[in-house]
Each structure stands twice: as C-alpha cells, then as structure tokens.
Design a protein that fits this description.
34% of the residues lie in helices and 15% in strands.
C-alpha cells in the first residue's frame, strides 16, 4: 500500500466503529496513486472502488460549475440579482441577493422546511422563494453556510437558463466530458435498479440502529438534491478536481475555461465569521478555501495541517471530502461510509489527510 499510515487509520476507524467502509482516491499531476476501498457499501455487501457512494455536500461544486457554465455562455452574470431570472425569489426582502451571494453563502435564507420527500421540486422551490430574508442580514456582508436552500435555487437557475432538467444537464455537461460516467445528481429508477448492490448506503454510526441517510434511499438517489445528493465512486470526485487543477479540462474533455476556474477557486469571501459554523471560513464560488490560519486545529471541514494555503475543495457532512492542493499538484477524494458525529469525524478526516501528506513525503515524517 502506497499510503500505509493513511490506510492504517482508515482500518482502525472501521475497527472502532466510526465507519463500516471507506473509499480513497489520490493523484498527483493527474496520475492516480491510490484508488482503494475498504469494508462495506451496506451491511453484508462489500464496498469496491466501483461502488457508488453518497457524497453529501462534497457534491455541491457540481452545481457551482453548472452556474459558471451559464456565466461563460452569457446566460447570466454573477452579480445579477437572482430575481432577474427567478422573479418570485424577490419575496420577503430578498430582491438584492445576487448569484454571487448564493455561491459565497452570504444570501441570508439558511433554513426552510422544504417538505421533501413528499414535496415536488417545484414545491420546494416555491417554499424557498417565499422565505423572508433573515433578520439583520446584509446580503454580501453577513455570512452563514446554507446547507441546502441556496443550492436548490442555484439548481433552479441552471434549469431556467439552460432549459434542461438539472440532473440531465450535470450528466451531459459536466460528468460525461471528464469521465465521471458513474456520477449522478439524480438518476432514473431503471438505472438505479440496474446498479443494484453497487449503490452504497450511508450509515449512521454515531447512533447505530438508525436507518441510513434519507438521501441514500431509492427516492433520495432519484431526487438528487443539488445541496448534497450526488452519488458516485469517490475516484470520480477526484476526476472533477483533476479537471479544475488543469484549468477545467481532463484528457477527455473540458468543462470550464481557465478564467472561470480562476474565479471559482479564487478568494471571493475572506475573513468573515460564518454564522452557521461560528468560525472564519474563506470561500471561492461554491468551494471552501483553506482557512486553517484562522482556526487550526479546530477548523471545520478543512484540509488538515499540511495543505497549502491555495488548497480548495468541499466536504460532506460527517462523511467525505474532495480537494485539490495546487502547490503539490495533489488531488484527494475520500468518503467514509459512516456518519460518526461531528467531533469524531473531524478528528478522523484530519488524521487521514495529514497521514496522506506524510506518506507521500510532502512533509517530514514525525
């Protein structure tokens, strides 16, 4: 095993009950170094590198790229008010919120009872549009992570601007051009059943006995929430970051121009306290920038102690991370099949990421 310390930590976490399985993909210079799976996709079903796992919020940047494609195609601008393209969104004092505010989590409508799974997509969008701006929130200046609300609105913008269903758009315009052939942001029932045991079930290991995550159900996989419903082998999340590391292109195709990638991964929100996480976290356009200078060692959803300051990516709640460290030409994509609780997850993911850098001799071995 090329990464012995990282592998040992993953295996020990499985023995400790933090997760029932894991997938890890690591590449340097877009050359794969590790593509490995451990444990189970669901109880009794082995997890392989071809298994499809729920990425949760680590899949958010797919929708961010879809928006940047609309900008490239002159269908919208980042500083357009959302209501210019979605008039009903202006309700409740939200008329000044722009597309850029959605991508930097500075919009101000963090939580809504969407009614899912009973509610349809259109009903969810209507519920979010009716939600008022949070009290004392100044769009663009007040910051707070929006777990799902802004992402539904971004997904609806992609649909209206492209005149295509979001799941179909993401498949054909982002996933297929760069070789993410088993990645889905919503799939049809026939394809879901064809995959069979290849589809994993994200387990709750903090409180064993509870059912898997609701988006790991058949209806959840089909729904494909743009805020956390992406499914695929974790190596394909690695392919996504390899494309971004090369200015939006892999050998098989291009998804963004280098200029759009630079805007996506560059600092767009700097030094603001996030009212959801209660920490300073810097953002690009839909991606989290390395922010450990503010919070280490208790940075939430960061990239460990050894990641360079230019590192960018996104993590999934208590489960996953996809990241690119440009200074080391390094891509890491990791998913644990086990939501182990916030504190335990933060410790395990930091430990594994740190071990990867040590195993690759990118830092001195302690």
């Amino acid at each position: 095993m090329l990464l012995p310390q990282a592998a040992a930590l993953i295996e020990q976490g499985q023995l400790d009950g933090l997760h029932i399985g894991a997938q890890l993909y690591v590449s340097r210079g877009c050359q794969p170094l590790v593509d490995q799976a451990w444990g189970y996709a669901r109880p009794g079903v082995p997890l392989t590198t071809n298994s499809l796992m729920l990425w949760l919020s680590a899949g958010k940047p797919l929708t961010a790229v879809a928006i940047m494609q609309q900008v490239e195609r002159h269908a919208c601008r980042l500083d357009d008010p959302v209501a210019l393209h979605l008039p009903e969104f202006a309700a409740g004092g939200k008329e000044a919120i722009t597309i850029r505010h959605l991508l930097t989590h500075t919009g101000g409508f963090r939580t809504v009872d969407t009614g899912w799974p009973e509610a349809s997509w259109d009903e969810i969008i209507a519920a979010i549009c009716c939600t008022p701006l949070e009290p004392n929130w100044v769009p663009g200046h007040t910051a707070g992570y929006h777990p799902y609300t802004s992402w539904y609105i971004l997904g609806e913008l992609v649909q209206r601007l492209s005149r295509r269903v979001l799941s179909d758009y993401v498949r054909s315009e982002i996933c297929e051009p760069i070789g993410m052939h088993d990645t889905w942001l919503g799939m049809d029932r026939v394809r879901y059943r064809e995959y069979g045991d290849r589809i994993g079930r994200m387990q709750n290991t903090e409180r064993p006995g509870l059912p898997p995550h609701q988006w790991a159900s058949e209806e959840g996989v089909m729904h494909g929430s743009p805020g956390g419903g992406a499914y695929g082998p974790i190596r394909e999340l690695g392919y996504f970051y390899e494309a971004l590391s090369r200015g939006g292109q892999r050998a098989t195709g291009r998804i963004l121009s280098p200029e759009s990638v630079a805007a996506l991964i560059g600092p767009q929100r700097v030094g603001l306290v996030d009212e959801t996480f209660k920490q300073k976290i810097d953002w690009g356009l839909g991606v989290i920038l390395d922010s450990k200078r503010y919070n280490y060692p208790v940075s939430l959803y960061g990239y460990g102690r050894h990641a360079s300051p230019r590192t960018f990516g996104h993590s999934g709640s208590q489960s996953s991370v996809g990241m690119c460290d440009p200074e080391h030409d390094l891509v890491i994509a990791l998913v644990f099949n086990g939501m182990a609780g916030e504190a335990r997850h933060q410790r395990r993911v930091r430990a594994v990421l740190d071990a990867i850098y040590t195993d690759l001799e990118l830092v001195p071995n302690p």
